[in-house]
Amino acid sequence: MSMLTPPGMGGKYKVTGAAYPRMSRPRRRRRIVLMVLGSIIGLALIAYGAVQLIDVFGGDANKRKTAAAKNCATPAPKAGSTAAAAPKVALPPPGGITVNVYNATPRAGLAKAVGDELKNRGFIIGKVGNAPADFDKKVPGAGILVGSPQTDKAAFSVLGTNLAGATQQTDTRESTDIDLILGDAFKELTPKADADKALAVLANPQPAPAKKC
Questions:
Q1: Are 165 and 204 in contact (CB under 8 A)?
Q2: What is the pTM of this model?
Q3: Rounded Cα distance, 140 and 182, in Å
Q4: CA distances for 6 relative to 12, 19, 59, 197, angstroms
Q5: Of 58, 60, 194, 206, whose CB has the highest number of CB atoms within 10 Å?
Q6: Model confidence pLDDT, tens digit, residues 154-164
Q7: DSSP state for residue 117 in the 8-state scheme
Q8: How close are the terminal C-alpha atoms of the chain, in Å?
Q9: Of the candidates 97, 109, 75, which has an alpha carbon nearest to the alpha carbon of residue 182?
Q10: Are 170 and 148 in contact (CB under 8 A)?
C-alpha cells in the first residue's frame, strides 16, 4: 500500500504513486483580469476620441472667429483719401421751386398765411386759394404735396422739410410746380431753424454706420 493511502482504505480508494495529484487553477480569476484590462482599454479609446473631437470642433470654431474678425475689420483709409465721407446731394434751392398753396380746411385765410411764410423762406409762390373739390375737407393729415411724375424728387424733399408729416402724390400735370394742400391736422409750418437743419442733413448725408461684429 502506498504511503498516500489513508489507513483502512483500499480497493477503489487506493492511491498509487509517489506524488500528490496535480489540481488545475480556477479560470474565474483569469476572466476577471481580462475584463478589467478590456475596460481600461475601452476607457482609453473613448478618452482619445473625445480629445480628437475637441481639437476638430475647437479648431473650426477658432477658424470661424478669425474669419469673422477679418470680415468685420475696417481697412484703414489711405492718406488723403475722402472715400469715408458720403457724397453731397445736389438739392434745388427754394428759389427754384414754385409752390401753389391750397386750403382744404374750414379755417379762413390759412393758405395766404402759409404762402407768405414760404415766400419769406425763399420759395416762389404760385396760386393761393381753396383746395380743389377732390381735396376740399378731405385731407385728414397735416398736408399733401402734389406734383408731376416728372417732378424732381429732391424738390419734394426740400419742400417737405417745412411740413413734417406731409404725404406725396402725383397727377397728370406736365409743369414742375408743386401743390401744397393743407389738411385738418395742420397747425403750423416746421420752424425755419429746424427746416434748415433737415435741409442740411439732406444735402450732407451721413455715411452708413460700421458693421458691428
A1: no
A2: 0.60
A3: 9
A4: 12, 14, 78, 126
A5: 194
A6: 999 999 999 99
A7: H
A8: 100
A9: 109
A10: yes
